Amino acid sequence: MTLTVRIKTLTPLWTGGLDGTMDRIHETGILGSLRWWYEAIVRGLGGSACAPTEPRCELTGQRLRLYEKAREEGKDWWQALDKAGICDACKVFGATGWKRRFRLEVKSDTQLTWQPRDSVLNIRPPERARGWYLLPGHVGTLTLKLEGEEKVVSMLACLFLWLEKYGSLGARPQLGYGAFRILNRDEVVEKAGGWKWGLLQKEAQNASPNSKGKTPDHPDLRRLLFFRYEFTPSKPGWWTQVPGVSRVGSRVQPLVTHWHTVPTTPALKNEWRFNQWQGNRREEVEIFGTLHPDRRRGRIGATWAYRENGVWFIHGWAWMPQKERLAGQLWKILADESVWAHVLGVQGNLTTVPSGQWKELTSEDVRKLLQGVCHD
Ligand SMILES: [Zn+2]
Q1: What separation in Å is there between the alpha carbon of 186 and the centre of ligand 1?
Q2: Which of 10, 18, 232, 297 is most buried, judging by how many CB atoms fall within 10 Å of its CB?
Q3: Boundaries of each CRISPR type III-associated protein domain copy (predicted)?
Q4: 208 by DSSP, 3-state: which?
Q5: Pure H helices in the chain
Q6: Are 297 and 174 in contact (CB under 8 A)?
Q7: Could you state, in order of their start, the residue ranges of all structural domains in the chain?
Q8: Which CATH architecture has domain 2-200?
Q9: In angstroms, rounded to a whole number, what is the distance separating the alpha carbons of residues 287 and 270?
Q10: What is the pLDDT of residues 154-195, one digit of tens each?
Q11: How far is the CA of 168 from the centre of ligand 1 (A)?
């Protein structure tokens, strides 16, 4: 079965490149994000997915023999890989000795957000010495052609619908890249119709990710907080007041005019980290990441602000820390509408999942959340 997904970027897409800049759209950057989310979904449904920080699955030696034996006994490839102990993510995305179950081809009609491709946009809020350095991603439309077995392709259709609403595509979601809109929605929803996320639900291993010692700290939908801030500014120039953006206003103006987006992510992160967060350095680094001495990615992804039909949006997620004390503290900051209004200078409406207060989701909550997105 073939699935065609036509998308329009809402914020620049970043897929990496050989020299650290983005010469073109690289399929690997798109595949990486699909896999990251799929792994978080699999874990969120109570299943297991290997992570880059541990040995990945390999279909070799004894495992390969188990797989072949199961196949001889009439099991399908999915069941046979179960017998061989290959995780649900590797089943679809591939592992040593096992090919990825779908092909991806990308045709793009995009351009660099600004020129040249190695020029950085430095967003420096007033009290920061260096601030954030943004490279130009790509903006425009893309056509993704995915080909594989029906079950796999339906799942991918659901995954795209999920990423559109709650996630992003490509790399550097922490810096706000990769928000997108699906242009041929009806077609994608139709293809998604055959998929049930419940197929991945594992009752036996359904331990909470927070049960200490049992589950390593990997992204897991049960411990992700999702947020969306929606606002309708009365003045078109609202963004010129956003900390750090004003001093590069002449470079941001074309982004607003042509692409309806504003790099608000640094200002929000700056506020959350340096003005709102209270805690020791170790905890701060655990949540917000660091470049020194070793690079550690932050746990928060927030898109740039983007405009659709006259309304502005920012959406994103936070991968909550295992310590509930820290998770509660982070929730308080991210779910505080007044912090958003203060940074952006515009009153808006903040919605979160879960709502009301921070609470780890159950795998059944996760299944319902995922399934709702596939079929709406
Ligand atoms: Zn694996």
Answers
A1: 32
A2: 10
A3: 6-181
A4: coil
A5: 27-44, 61-72, 77-83, 88-93, 150-166, 185-192, 249-259, 265-270, 281-288, 324-334, 337-344, 363-375
A6: yes
A7: 2-200, 221-375
A8: 2-Layer Sandwich (3.30)
A9: 13
A10: 999 999 999 999 999 999 999 999 999 999 999 999 999 989
A11: 22
